[in-house]
TrEMBL record:
Lineage: Bacteria, Bacillati, Actinomycetota, Actinomycetes, Streptosporangiales
Annotated S-Me-THD N-terminal domain residues: 11-165
All copies of domain S-Me-THD-like C-terminal, residue ranges: 168-355
UniProt cross-references to Pfam families, sorted A to Z: S-Me-THD_C, S-Me-THD_N
Protein name per the record: DUF917 domain-containing protein
Organism: Actinomadura miaoliensis
Cited SUPFAM superfamilies: CV3147-like (SSF160991)
Length: 364
């Protein structure tokens, strides 16, 4: 059995790595890190367990925030929302929750479960439901595995709570998004209740360990080697572009942060341009009009000098950044996965091509 105790001093690396894999979304990693550090110092370390060590009859519940990342920066949770959501779900289930999990790898949504685990004393599963971050509730591997999003509970800082039971996961997204907008474009959620026996099919194993390793590698590379290269090596990724941000167009619409960013190339990319399109997370990267990466593969933006992740809400004119593309979990590349999160779902008129093929060296 592999059980680890996560202390507050480890959260900086975890938050950094999670924000890198979060493809620009998942909320502000700094805010999430502070909340997790505070909770762990107050209540003690978080117990992290592998999927293989979760009993088959365990009741596993992912905890997350839903809404526009631009709003989450200014509307941070008090902590009481988590307790309200878990109590409401427990009463709806008629049984105790035994384990917590991450719904996605992303800034605040990889650290909020640590807050919940510290405050409740429940163990946290070393896994997540995406292997990255996606903008909509139904875009999780549990959907592919036949797990219902509902019962789904949403709470806010005012004390409101809503319990949803819907006919499918897409309707859960539609109704939960409407409730979240009314709650101020940000809510706390618990959803996708799973038994331990379902975790292997419904989650990506080891992602919390992976993000800590990634965050630590970037930090340790500074001053010794290129931190962006260190990240690429761990992610099995590709450097798509290096440049300066020349324009960002961003708006909050329908509970999402939507927009585009444009970069002018520097170094080996001098004279070229890159455009990013995002809906909370980066969805498409094009260099001089040619697609170099797109959903469901990961598109990650890092500060060129430090390797620190830059979220979509933090991206600003003048930032000097490097853009990385990396392969997604293989299950997203299946026909069912692409129907759920592929480029055509988001309205792009092209088929999915793996990032490694788009960036393969040209034959000589």
């Amino acid at each position: 059995m592999t059980v680890r105790q996560i202390t507050a001093d480890r959260m900086a690396d975890i938050a950094r790595g999670a924000a890198i894999l979060g493809t620009g979304g998942g909320g502000d990693p700094y805010v999430g890190r502070l909340l997790a550090e505070q909770a762990i110092r107050r209540h003690g370390p978080v117990t992290l367990v592998d999927i293989e060590d979760v009993p088959a009859d365990a009741v596993v519940v992912p905890v997350a925030m839903m809404g526009a990342p631009t709003v989450m920066v200014e509307k941070t949770p008090s902590g009481e929302e988590i307790h309200t959501a878990l109590r409401t779900l427990r009463d709806a289930l008629g049984q105790e929750i035994t384990h917590l999990a991450c719904i996605e790898v992303g800034g605040i949504n990889s650290t909020i479960p640590f807050v919940a685990a510290a405050e409740t004393g429940l163990p946290l599963v070393d896994a997540d439901a995406m292997g990255r971050a996606f903008p909509e509730l139904q875009m999780v591997l549990p959907t592919l595995a036949g797990v219902s999003t509902c019962p789904l509970v949403l709470t806010d800082e005012k004390g409101n709570s809503t319990l949803l039971r819907t006919i499918d996961n897409l309707w859960a997204e539609r109704l939960a998004r409407s409730v979240t907008v009314e709650m101020g474009c940000s809510s706390m959620t618990v959803q996708c209740v799973m038994r331990g026996a379902q975790l292997r099919d419904a989650l990506v194993p080891g992602t919390l360990s992976l993000v800590e390793r990634l965050g630590r590698a970037v930090r340790e590379a500074r001053g010794r080697r290129d931190p962006v290269t260190a990240a690429i090596e761990i992610m099995d990724g590709h450097l798509l572009f290096t440049g300066k941000v020349t324009d960002v167009s961003r708006r909050t619409s329908g509970g999402f942060a939507r927009g585009t960013a444009r970069l002018a190339g520097t170094g080996t990319h001098d004279g070229r341009s890159l455009e990013l399109q995002f809906q909370n997370e980066h969805l498409l990267a094009q260099v001089d009009g040619r697609v170099v990466a797109g959903v469901p593969d990961l598109i990650c933006v890092l500060e060129t000098d430090s390797g620190e992740p830059v979220t979509t809400e933090a991206l600003r004119y003048g930032f000097r950044v490097s853009v990385i593309g990396a392969p997604c979990d293989p299950r997203w590349r299946t026909a069912a996965g692409l129907d759920l999160v592929g480029p055509r779902y988001f309205g792009y008129d092209h088929d999915y091509v793996p990032v490694e093929r788009l960036n393969a060296p040209s034959p000589r």
